[in-house]
Structures are given as C-alpha cells and as structure tokens.
Amino acid sequence: MHLPSQPGALAGIRVLDLSRILGGPYCGQILGDHGADVLKVEPPGGDDTRTWGPPFRDGVASYYHGLNRNKRIQHLDLTTAEDRERLLALVAEADVLIENFKTGTMERWGIGQAELSQRFPRLVWCRVTGFGSDGPLGALPGYDAAVQAMTGIMSINGEADGGPLRVGLPVVDMVTGMNAALGVLMALQERERSGRGQLVEAALYDSGLALLHPHAANWFMDGRAPKRTGNAHPNIYPYDALRTGTDPVFVAVGNDRQFGAFCRVIGLPDLSADADYATAGARSANRNALKAVLEAQMAALDGRALVEDLMAAGVPAAPVLDVESALRHPHTAHRGMVVEMEGGWRGLGSPIKLDRTPASYRHVPLTPGTAFAPRD
C-alpha cells in the first residue's frame, strides 16, 4: 500500500459516489486517488459490475475491483424513506455528489438535483448520463459500445477493407469519467469565488463525439467522409505498424526531420529527398507506395533492435506489445503504474503525477464505511 507523505491535492474534499458501472465510478476513483474522502453508496445487491466476470475474487469481479479503490462502501436501499434520510445526512456533509441514475429516478424519490441544490447550495452535483437529460435522445440509456457506434467511432476503427469495429476497451466510458472529474474540479474552483455549487454533466454521447479528432476536423474542412485506415494515421505517414524481418514495429513520424532520420536508420538515406516523399503532405498522399518501399527494406531488419535504433535517432517507435508485456515492462514499474495493496490486490496506478501531492492508495475495493472522516 502506498501512503502519502502529506495529504493529497484533494484532501478535505468529501465525495458521495452514488454511481455504478464505469464512467461515474472511474470519476470517483480519480478523485479518491488524489486525496478526496470518497463514500460509495450501492444498492443492497451492489454495483452491477460485481458480476462482470470472470475472473472473480471472493465472488466479486475484477471489473469492479479496477474501478473502486480509494473508496469506502456502504449499502443503502434508496427506494425506502429510511435510507433516503440516511443519504441526506451524508449529502449534508459532502462537497461533491456523483450519480448516473436514469433521468428522473432521484426526482421521483424527492432527492433530485433541483431539490438538493436548494437545501445544500455549496454541493457540486456531477451527473454522468448516456445522452444528457434532454434533447432528441435525452434521458435514453447509453452504454459504451452503443455510443461508439452512434458517434462514428466504430466507422473509423478497423482495417481499411474490413467493417466498422468497436475499440477494444471502453474508451467512451473512461473518457466520460475523466471529463466528469475535470468538470468537478472546475466547479470546486469556481465555488471558491462564488460560494455556490453547480451541476456538472458529462454525457457519453458528447465524450464520444469529442474523441473524433482529427476525423471531425478533416470533415469540417473538406466534407469528405473519413475512412478506416487500420493502424495508419489518416493525415500523416509513416504513422503505422510496419513489418520487419521479425516482429512488427509501430513508427510515428510526425515531421520531415524525423522522416529523414528514419530513412537513414533503415538504410535508405536518399528516400527523404524523393519528391514523392519529401513533405508530410506528399508522404500521406503516396502512402501505399511508401509503405511498400519501407517494408521491403525493413524485411531484413530485426524489429526490437530497429526500435532501439530509431528511438536513439529521435524517431518515435515502439514494439507492438500485448497487455501482459506492457504491464510487466520495467518502465511501467518505474512510472508507478502498477499498484499493490493489502491482501494481494493489484491494479493500475494513477496517470496523473503531482510532485508535491502525489496520488496515494489508501483503501482497497470493498472497504466498508458509513461516514465521512472528520474535517481538519
């Protein structure tokens, strides 16, 4: 377990996390990692993701474990008046409330945002939704994969000659959680000036659309429908996975200088002066021919050694690793991106690094709790 040498950046902030599944809990975990006191309230049966396995530990899925550290958990049945009163006592002590109930649910219980903002004017209310609360799709339920489909993400993901493909991780949910956390921090900062909380809304649909760079920017400029390009970047080249004599390597050439260095490393020093490839625009327009030339030359090279040579020459390049290899990489350990806590719990560390008030890992998932810690 990693304990802080001093309080985290959000020490003293109390967060009531009523959310479940991914976007809301991920937001709560981000805040908890950086020192907030997070109480997660779940229904008697627990968050749905407790069943999203295998694998399981003591009957609780890894999926849940990956999103709910640095929280203390209690169960309330908010369909009952008694437990709603218990919740209100917690809200009275909270700075932030996170929820992702179906629109109208908390209002039917008499504990909606409009009611509670009057009673607790300093409360920052963070709502995570699928499509927002109103509009043509407002109040409809949203899941990551369905939103990937609706926002165009699947249409630009996959091989050029294949069909639309879901990104292999819940990218929309996770970015929505990040946007929610960012919005909470903005609202807390503004509260320092006004003394008032406000509603923060993070919708999966909005977050999915916001991920469309540079495809949306391209479409706004030329009106052409973006196409799938496999591993290749739609605007620059070579920015692609390329075959070698051994393992494939990913090369990310972003400018003419890097392309010149790349050509020298692979033994084609004159290629960067060829008019068809001398500029970024020319390389992108002639990418198919360029790829053929590059892979023919690289067929005699060892992929791992080539990555080292390219990186030494200032050309961004990487081996194509699987998840296990990435998690076992020495740099992963150096960056503190694998965390071990009591009871053998392991998970991903926080990617947000602060030098004076770093993230800390204080509560394993499923730590019980019934009240916020006293304020200093």
Topology:
Blueprint: E1 14-17, H1 23-33, E2 37-42, E3 56-57, E4 60-61, H2 62-65, E5 72-75, H3 81-91, E6 96-99, H4 105-108, H5 113-119, E7 124-129, H6 144-150, H7 171-194, E8 199-203, H8 204-210, H9 215-222, E9 239-242, E10 249-252, H10 256-266, H11 280-285, H12 287-298, H13 303-312, E11 317-319, H14 323-328, H15 330-334, E12 338-341, E13 345-348, E14 367-368
Parallel strand pairs: 1-2, 1-6, 2-5, 5-14, 6-7, 7-8
Antiparallel strand pairs: 3-4, 9-10, 10-11, 12-13
Helix pairs in contact: 1-7, 7-8
Protein name: Carnitine dehydratase
Keywords: Transferase
GO molecular function, one term: CoA-transferase activity
Class of secondary structure makeup = alpha/beta
Q: What is the oligomer described by this structure?
A: single chain
- Alpha plus pi helix count: 15
The gross shape turns out to be elongated
Beta fraction of the residues?
A: 5-15%
CATH H-level superfamily title of the largest domain? Crotonobetainyl-coa:carnitine coa-transferase, domain 1
Overall number of strands: 14
Q: How much is the radius of gyration in Å?
A: 24 Å
Low-pLDDT runs: none
- CATH topology assignment of the largest domain: Rossmann fold
- Main β-sheet: number of strands, strand sense, barrel status? 7 strands, parallel
How would you state the average pLDDT, rounded?
95
The helicity comes to 25-40%
Strand order of the largest sheet: 8-7-6-1-2-5-14
Q: What's the number of domains?
A: 2
CATH architecture of the largest domain: 3-Layer(aba) Sandwich
Order of helices and strands: EHEEEHEHEHHEHHEHHEEHHHHEHHEEE
Distance between the termini: 23 Å
CATH class bucket of the largest domain: Alpha Beta
